[in-house]
Write a structure and sequence with these properties.
The chain has three helices and nine strands. By secondary structure, it is of the alpha/beta class. It has a single domain, classed as Rossmann fold (3-Layer(aba) Sandwich). The longest helix has 18 residues. The radius of gyration is 16 Å and the shape is globular. The structure holds guanosine-5'-monophosphate and magnesium ion. The site of magnesium ion has 5 residues, from strand 5.
Length: 179
């Protein structure tokens, strides 16, 4: 490892994440009220979504899946506050039962934007599943129906999450050491 290679401390291990995803899938299976269309918010949640749909399959749920890209971050660690739709779904969400899957609930702007978009387009119902919840950072009054882990105000990477396009492939969720 070179001297300027960042050190990443593990916050949630691969095994901890796998166990939590399995539990979440069971909770979603129990709450399901019709055929689900999972709306994955890219890019950060693609790894989580891939594990979640396989856990849902084990729980007896076979959802359809579609993707949209919402972006509120530049390349840094601070949100710009403006949510932009940079890639839309290919499916029509009218009269569908939607489960939005996203990586992190922070201010709530991204999730609120995605949820409002689904409702504006006539979704029959909208549930939300978030891998991580930074509860103390909330700006809008929105909560996830299903959440993986609650974390404090720290910038996390790995398991799909990046810092300036790096670290998405780490199998664990970690914090970049600042020293
Ligand atoms: P919100 O719109 O709720 O303020 O921000 C949520 C979005 O910001 C997440 O979907 C995620 O893309 C990004 N984000 C928030 N916190 C972090 C973090 O700690 N690490 C990374 N990689 N992305 C984050
Ligand atoms: Mg995101």
């Amino acid at each position: 490892m070179s001297v300027d290679e960042p050190v990443i401390d593990v916050l949630f291990s691969e095994a901890e994440i796998a166990a939590r995803v399995e539990t979440l899938a069971g909770e979603i299976a129990g709450a399901q009220n019709g055929e689900l269309l999972i709306v994955v918010i890219l890019k950060g949640s693609f790894v989580f979504a891939a594990d979640l749909i396989r856990a849902l399959d084990r729980a007896g749920v076979a959802p359809q899946v579609d993707f949209m890209t919402l972006s509120s971050y530049g390349v840094g660690t601070r949100s710009s506050g403006v949510v932009r739709l940079t890639r839309d779904l290919s499916e029509d969400v009218g009269d569908r039962h939607i489960l939005i899957v996203d990586d992190i609930l922070e201010s709530g702007r991204t999730l609120a934007a995605a949820r409002d978009m689904m409702l504006d387009r006539g979704a029959a119902s909208v549930l939300t599943c978030l891998l991580l919840d930074k509860a103390e950072k909330r700006v809008l009054p929105i909560e996830a129906d299903f959440k993986g882990f609650v974390i404090g105000d720290r910038f996390v990477v790995g398991y799909g999450l990046d810092l300036a396009h790096r670290f998405r492939g780490l199998p664990y969720i970690g914090v970049v050491r600042q020293d």
